[in-house]
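Hi everyone, sorry if this is the wrong subforum. Our group has a chain we'd like a structural model of before ordering constructs, and none of us has done structure prediction before. Sequence below.
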Amino acid sequence: MLKYPFSLTLLLGILISGCQPDRQKPLDGRFRAVLTTPGGPLPFWMDFRPAGEKLSLVIRNGEESIEVPEITRKDNDLTIMMPVFDSHFDLTYRHDSLVGFWQNSARGHDYRIPFYAVKDSGSRFAGKPLEPAVDITGRWSVTFVDMDNDTTLAIGEFEQDSATLTGTFLTPTGDYRYLEGRVKGDSMFLSCFDGAHAFLFTALIPNESIMMGKFWSGKHWEESWVAQRNDSARLPDPYELTYIKDGYDGLAFRFPDLDSNMVSLSDDQYRNKVVIVQIMGSWCPNCKDETAFLADYYREHSTGDLKIIALAFEKAKTFKKASRNVARLRDQYRAGYDFLIAGPANKKEAVKKLPMLNHVLSYPTTIFIDKAGNVRKIHTGFSGPATGAPYDQFKREFEEMVGMLLEE
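Answer:
Right subforum, don't worry. Here is the predicted structure as tokens:
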């Protein structure tokens, strides 16, 4: 006869449960998330919180907070769908850590990057802390050199608080959004993850006036870059890069909306109106930022005399999938204006669809049309809220331009 049946039963239960996977173990707190890229660990923050029977997630990059509401959990397996962008995580939760893959379907079904995350509220870039040897706060003139030795001029804007570093890069076609990282000794590290782009920047800082670095985007792109401190650095005028070619009267197009109804700029609903045409894509973070701005502006200033049309050039292979992706972006920002599916996300193809333009240099590109149907201005690229002063300048110019056109 067993002398202590209750204690033995309890012990066996503990041993057996220890060999079984945890069932719905609470997932809560800050995690240091890492994508394993060719350039090295690419970190960002994930904040999990219980929300009733569901789970909430916020991804953080500097001042940016990305709420992620679509999370499916079965036992300790999770699928996390990124809002707006066509990407997701397939993860398993064990012992306060997450492991799995991030898949960016916009780049193909085989575009997967290994991922892990551990509970951590320390430094975004782990490792031995080193006192910064230099403060890189300020404006820098930057030259990127890609894998084909083509160069792109840019501006770096950084703010350093002790070892903590935030900032972004501005280019003629847009900005690199919210970057966050650290300065360690004579090196700097910056990263961001927003569901579409996974960016990693590193650099050596020989002195207070120069940086020499590398840039990786996910697992598919790598560039070198060099920067010199330059408080007066400027980019080309974004209103002079794209224009209507000689021989064309103005802008004209006819594309299907998200319900397959054909829509033309010459339709009655746009005649004698101020029309803003947004060349964009649902896969494009700069386009997301501009859509957020345009949606807010349209809600606050919408009158019968103002119309906005988004021409979406998409990476999805089918019209159905492209429409679904664009609808997610539209619904995310409650954008009350028109969205059309214009074609594939290829700049050469975009020019074929819009042959009156000298080129489509950037997604987004914004075209201002007056009530008489004349193209008055074309703005290439978009400097979003991560850029600070350039974003404020764009908003002022936009409001002045639209206000003037409405009064004519």
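For your construct planning: The longest strand covers residues 40-51. The chain is about 20% helix and 45% strand.
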